[in-house]
Write a sequence for this structure.
């Protein structure tokens, strides 16, 4: 079993040192063992956990969901129904965000197309940004 410092754990996992400390503080990562000089000593298991957390964060999972998913991972013989529910909830959030982003894209396209490229006083981009009521779609 390999053991390494927090700096090495950060490099190998792609998680910054302060973030690793934060994950330890909030209980996503167990407090690692300490060396004789009181420095954190991380194991391969800790690294795998950091990689799991980083990937889950990249996919947009909230900290509480990640805590639950980690607890499930720690007990692999139980049903995956909870993991499925968490992933489905995240999918709904992503789908809602896509609707919002599509509306935002359309609004930006309309603003740009309407731009007369004259003076700021007549600029549709400035006009619409100043008055949300002039937006074509309120879902952004």
């Amino acid at each position: 079993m390999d053991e390494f410092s927090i700096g090495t754990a950060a490099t190998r996992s792609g998680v910054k040192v302060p973030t690793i400390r934060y994950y330890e503080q909030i209980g996503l990562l167990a407090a690692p063992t300490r060396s004789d000089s009181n420095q954190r000593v991380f194991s391969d298991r800790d690294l795998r956990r950091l990689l799991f957390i980083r990937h889950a964060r990249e996919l947009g999972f909230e900290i509480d969901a990640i805590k639950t998913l980690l607890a499930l991972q720690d007990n692999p013989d139980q049903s995956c129904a909870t993991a499925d529910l968490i992933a489905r909830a995240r999918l709904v959030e992503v789908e809602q965000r896509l609707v919002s982003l599509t509306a935002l894209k359309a609004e930006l396209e309309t603003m740009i197309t309407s731009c007369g490229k004259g003076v700021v006083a007549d600029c549709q981009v400035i006009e619409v940004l100043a008055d949300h009521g002039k937006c074509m779609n309120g879902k952004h």
Q: What stands out?
A: The chain has two domains: 3-78, 83-134. The radius of gyration is 23 Å. The first helix runs from residue 6 to 13. The CA atoms of residues 5 and 39 lie 7 Å apart.
